[in-house]
Specification:
There is one protein chain. The protein is mainly alpha-helical. It has three domains: 10-80, no CATH class; 102-179; 186-262. Helix content is 56%, strand content 9%. The chain contains twelve helices and five strands. The protein has helices at 18-27, 34-44, 52-67, 73-84, 88-102, 104-119, 127-139, 149-165, 186-198, 203-206, 220-229, 254-262; strands spanning 124-126, 169-173, 176-179, 236-241, 244-249. The strands form two sheets. It has a three-stranded antiparallel sheet. Strand 4 and strand 5 form a beta hairpin. Helix 9 (186-198) packs antiparallel against helix 12 (254-262). 33% of the residues are buried.
């Protein structure tokens, strides 16, 4: 789990919101405020049929916590990747990372339940899996106050729905969603590794970071294998031995990194 951050029901505002986030990132401009982005989306008619209040909620409650949390540099980078035409799977996986960071309940559900069930040989997830996860989370103090039965049921559905939006699960059938083939893309791994590195995470701690568990990489050695497989792309040189990891980073800035990912 990511510390003791409390779980919220905020996923209800839009779940994965993948197409909407892509549209908003295309509108995004460096230095723009949340209100300005909402106004721009309305004036451009990006979401026909949506009320002004709905658009404002999408931007304020879903988009901003994911991509404007501390500044708009994340949005700048993602917009560049989208405009460059990078594969949709990579964008989807990067959206998953930032959504799971903003919504700890989703991060923990994927890391603790989704991948655990897959490793156990299950072929699908049921609404009961999510419901049991939330009940256990309440007992462990992850909610500030008890959730009603209706809220538990709704958030259980939101969790499965978000997993569907990020291509981890298929369509709902009688309350169940089948597992879809899902593995981290090489460009996603390159982005995530640099994201952690530029955030000040040391080389040894980097391979232990919980964000890798979103992709089923529970063992640091699995992360190391993924990173080593991308060495031929010239992003880094990895040396390991005696339990220590040393990474020689070729890209010293985000600009260099984004260029390397899109080339």
């Amino acid at each position: 789990m990511l510390g003791d951050k409390q779980y919220t029901t905020q996923l209800q505002a839009g779940l994965g919101m993948v197409p909407e986030c892509q549209a908003l990132l295309r509108l995004h401009q460096s230095g723009i405020t949340t209100s300005q982005l909402s106004d721009l989306a309305l004036s451009e008619g990006v979401f026909p049929g949506c009320t002004a209040r709905r658009v404002e909620n999408l931007v304020r409650e879903m988009f901003a916590p994911r991509f404007y949390k501390s500044n708009d540099q994340v949005a700048d980078r993602l917009k560049h990747l989208i405009v460059s035409g990078i594969h949709a799977d990579v964008i989807n996986q990067l959206f998953l990372i930032y959504t799971a960071r903003a919504q700890t309940v989703l991060h923990d559900f994927i890391s603790q339940v989704y991948w655990s069930r897959r490793r156990d040989g299950a072929d699908s997830l049921a609404i009961e899996d999510a419901h049991n996860f939330l009940e256990k989370a309440f007992k462990n103090g992850r909610m500030t106050k008890p959730w009603s039965t209706i809220t538990l049921k709704r958030v259980s559905g939101y969790l499965l729905g978000a997993c569907h939006d990020f291509d981890l699960l298929g369509k709902a059938r009688r309350g169940n969603r089948s597992f879809l083939p899902f593995r981290i893309r090489a460009k996603t791994a390159v982005y995530l590794a640099h994201d952690l590195h530029f955030a000040g995470v040391g080389d040894n701690n980097l391979i232990h970071h919980p964000d890798w568990t979103l992709f089923g990489l529970q063992d640091p050695d699995e992360v190391l294998t993924i990173l080593a497989s991308t060495c031929s792309e010239g992003n880094w040189l990895i040396q390991s031995g005696g339990g220590l990891i040393q990474i020689s980073w070729k890209n010293s800035t985000w600009k260099e990194t984004i260029h390397a990912i899109t080339r």
